[in-house]
Amino acid sequence: MPTVELRAVEKNFGTVKALDAIDLSIADGEQVAILGPSGSGKSTLLRVIAGLETHDSGTLTVDGVDQRAVPAHRRDMAIVFQHFALYPHLSSLGNITLGLRYGLKLSKQEARARAHDVATRMQVEHLLDRKPREMSGGQRQRIALARALARRSGVVLLDEPLSGLDAQLHAALRVEIAELLRSVNATGVNVTHDQVDAMAMADRVAIVNHGTVEQVGTPDELYAVPATVFVASFVGSPPMNLAPVGEDGSSVFGARRLRVDGPVTLGVRPERLHFTAGDVDLDWRARGRVALIEPNGADRVVHVELDTPGPRRTFAVRCRSGEQPPLGAAVDLSCAPNDVHVFAGEQDRRLGTVAELGGELAMAGAQ
Amino acid sequence: MTTSPVPARLIKWLLVLIAVVISLFPFYWMLRTALAPQSQQLADGLGFWPSHLDFGNFARAWNKANLGQALLNGLIITGAILLLQLITCVPAAYAFAKIRFRGSGVLFGVVLACLLIPTQATMVPTFIGINIFGLGDTRIGLVLPFYSSAFGIFLLRQQMLSIPDALLDAARTDGLGPWRTLLRVVVPMSMPSIAAFAVFSVFTHWNDYLWPLLVARSPDLATPPLRLAVFQQADIGFDYSALAAGAAIVTAPILILFLFAQRRFVQGMAGGEIAG
Amino acid sequence: MTTILDKPMPSPAAADKPIKPIDPNRTRATPYVFVAPAMSGIGLFVLLPALLSFIGSFFAIPLAPGANWKWVGFDNYTSVFGDPAAHRAIENTLLYCAMTIIPSLVLGLLLALLAESLRHGRTLVRTALFLPMTANLVAMAVVFKWIFALQGGFANQALAWIGIAPVNWLNDTRYSLISVALVGVWRGVSLTMLLFLAGLTTIPGAIHEAAAAEGIRGWAKLRTLILPMMKPTIVFATVLSILTSIQAFDQINVMTQGGPQESSETVLTYTWKVGFSYFQLGKASALSFVLIAVLIGIGLIRRRAFSAEQR
Ligand SMILES: Nc1ncnc2c1ncn2[C@@H]1O[C@H](COP(=O)(O)OP(=O)(O)OP(=O)(O)O)[C@@H](O)[C@H]1O
Ligand SMILES: [Mg+2]
Fold first, then answer.
1. What is the ipTM, given to two decimal places?
2. Which of A364, B132, B205, C197 has the lowest tally of Cβ within 10 angstroms?
3. Nearby residues for ligand 2 (ion, Cβ within 5 Å)
């Protein structure tokens, strides 16, 4: 059973460093999502794993076997491409069987049997005779997935499998694909720039930025303990409120002074902020004015413009519907010290919460 | 398009009509001449249709100019050239469009340069060469210089550029290998431009006059235009009826082919559209 | 039949054969295998002859195989420059080009736009306008020869009908070149129209809609949207027209044979005569290269003038 390991994998396109020292191990049967902004190297990472690009340095192994010399079609992998990449001149059946017949060298009957088998499982039998242009986006997507699954590969790679589908289909297929991959025990690697997709489909998520893996973890881990400022700002909706600490130790939490020797950033999740004056001795507090109220189902996201010297800064605060202050009101915000995350150092790595680091004033900046 | 005012539309149609008349007139005149008896040509003057019909002109042209054999020659030579050009140009176009390899830029530059070299600059050495190898006055000599086509490579490459890379990646992960990818994915997807090029090639070589005139010295090898040209230079230079009938016979096959292939041809020249 | 749900079949790659490394030589050789046949063809029958022709233009070349070429330096070129018939041929070729290329392009574009804008009978009109391109030029030349015949030809009968004296289209030095050029235009328009129509269809419908929404119409639309978007097509059509015109041969050979008195002789027909009737192969080659040099020269001057205009 396949486990995929990447060690210090690098890939350059001319002067563009698309992948920079990627370390990632994917366990057998695991569903991993690769999440990152556009241009961060997600597709490149997937194509390196698939064997469509060769990496410049580092190692890629599947079950301990180095893959460098293994051509794409001999890897135990199947890939679903970003825009499906169905052969336009072939029916769905032709699309599914082409690789089975000539790549896996199955007999015609066997290839057809497999195609029908997958199609039955996915309830797309009625689409087998249609050509890609005679199908809707969602149907094409299912056929593309069927083509990948019919290979019965240990690893299924998906490059933004849901892009270009409308929101409802998106949500439905997200669940369907994840269930399907789990049910065939395939290891799934799912590239996406949508964090909701990533969280919904994957056991673990790898956050990629500028060609490096910033953090790998379960969705809960990423949320609770973001390893870097980038992860904190990328995961969560709205993401974590972030504010830098000035050289003199001042921050949006006006009453608190920090001892710093280097750039430090503080972060608080929106739902950890409260509209109360809080405990003067314990809590971290800030003041501001309500600038915008965003309805969000049962919740409200209140954007508060903070009263701080320097550049304008707003914090998002999540509260129950009905508990939000009126627009324009002056408000106090407070939060507990163990909800204030501290990031510092060259990579803006997380050091811990204020509580863990020993409370105010005792705090050190970058090591 | 919004509806244009009536006078503008009238002018438009008038222009179109004039163009259509000019474009079709020689064909019409050819038929009219071919269908009238030779004795009647001067008498009929500008009349729209000949006063007597005479289908004997076709028989006369067919027999005197030995057009049957010429048509067969034309078919063999044109067919052989087409086949060879497809075999050579399709893979080359694919490689130039979709495979990155050392020297591809330079080689494609050569293709473009060859596209621009006029016949007069090549015909003398080619003729000498063909004769040195004893291929003068043979079918092989008529076919060989055209087994590849710079224009074909250029046109086909142009369309193949628009095949999405993802499809070729899919073919790679499917394990099709370069030849299967070419035959099973690239060729079917490039069908419009392949068809267009095929029609173009057939037009060019069926109608080619210069090279057969040089190479095909024995009458048995003559292609239709060559035979027709010889026919009109010969003693019956004034038998316009038979000449026009001969011209009609030579023109007809290609015309019919065009009428059938027209839609694909125009599409293919447009670079076609490839949707995934 | 195992179902995909009970998967773990042996993995496809590992299945039977041991994993072989990609044979780097094979994958790298593939593109060369793909281009080799085609490149050999154009190399042997276009590039090499062109080179030999250039080299040959400095030699006296005997027709007999095996006989030696004799170096004659610039003699062939001097002979071309000193030959009034060659001057005439080059002059005629340039005239023929001027009379065919520009009308073909302008009329072709106009007709393409017209045919595209028709709402009824578009296919029929197109077919009619395409036909000249498919015609066998020798066959059509035979027909045109009859149309332009002095006695009883349609052209002169039509002139007589409106009261104009007959013109000796093919045997008068003033008209022979014009007559063959007319045939060239008749056919050339058809080809350029096809190319322009093809180019027009590549302009996405959204562009037309956007233009309509913004009220950009008629001439302004043509100048600011259509022509710029068709630039590649226009370049392609121009190149093809130039090539067709400098290689005009069929209808000249059939209709006038370059006559009367070299009045419709072009470089190609004259090269033909020099090469294959007088067997001065070196001079024939030299003549081709003089034409190519002249064309390049004109191209450069036009370019200069054009860029000067832009400034
Ligand atoms: N074939 C290539 N040649 C040159 N540069 C490339 C190539 N492919 C990718 N890149 C560059 O590598 C970087 C990573 O690209 P990649 O396609 O992996 O991003 P991505 O995360 O998939 O983005 P998106 O979400 O937009 O698909 C980008 O800067 C891109 O420009
Ligand atoms: Mg991508």
1. 0.84
2. B132
3. A 43
